[in-house]
Amino acid sequence: MDSRSRPRNCGRRSWGRRALKAVADKRRRYGKSRARRRRGVLLLLAAALAGVAALFALPFVLGAPETVRKTVYPLRYEETIRQASRENGLEPAFVAGVIYTESRFRPDAESHQTAYGLMQMLPETAEFVQQRSGIRGDYREPRTNIRLGAWYLGYLDERYRGDERLMLAAYNSGEGRVDGWISEEGFDIAKDIPFKETRDYVENSLEAREVYGDLYGEDLRRDPGWSIPFTNIYDETRRFGDS
Predict the structure, then answer these.
(1) What is d(CA 82, CA 230) in angstroms, rounded to the nearest whole number?
(2) What CATH number is associated with residue 169?
(3) What's the predicted TM-score (pTM) here?
């Protein structure tokens, strides 16, 4: 069409549409930018609170908004946690608390002692559990790591007759040390653990269990609707490390 034959307001309408689109685009960009800034602030706050929790105590973060608390205390692989806990007679929040204390839910976490994964399995512990349980797979793979760690906790649960402090102390320090401690007359697991690292580990794991039960109780209790073929074998005649 010849430009001379166009309606005079055609250019104005086109300009108006472009102007409206530009305004809408600007609002959209502003909204995304504000959302990114808000997420950034929450992440920084979460990181700061995580540092406070690590240095001092969990009560400092318990009053924070739920979004922040769930950033500080993340939950992943919950289906595997639920199933592994159920198969080994454990509370899912307890297992989640151990994972948090061990690795902060980082699947690639590795210690200077070569403990690896979410539940910080040592190679020799993983081998022991795999021999006893029949669980196969690479112990460094997250779901296998959880299954192995939960089986070992179940083994310690039976060995120490449900005493969670003894279980956790043995998970952190080893059964041999714990057996030596409890053989001493008058030993009180709540106050007589000789290693500060193990004392802190026990308390932090129990506190984290409470947090995970509060934040994710319903998710952790829900029946996953599928099963993993576990065998939880506890043999009094053969203890970890025996030949």
Answers:
(1) 13
(2) 1.10.530.10
(3) 0.70
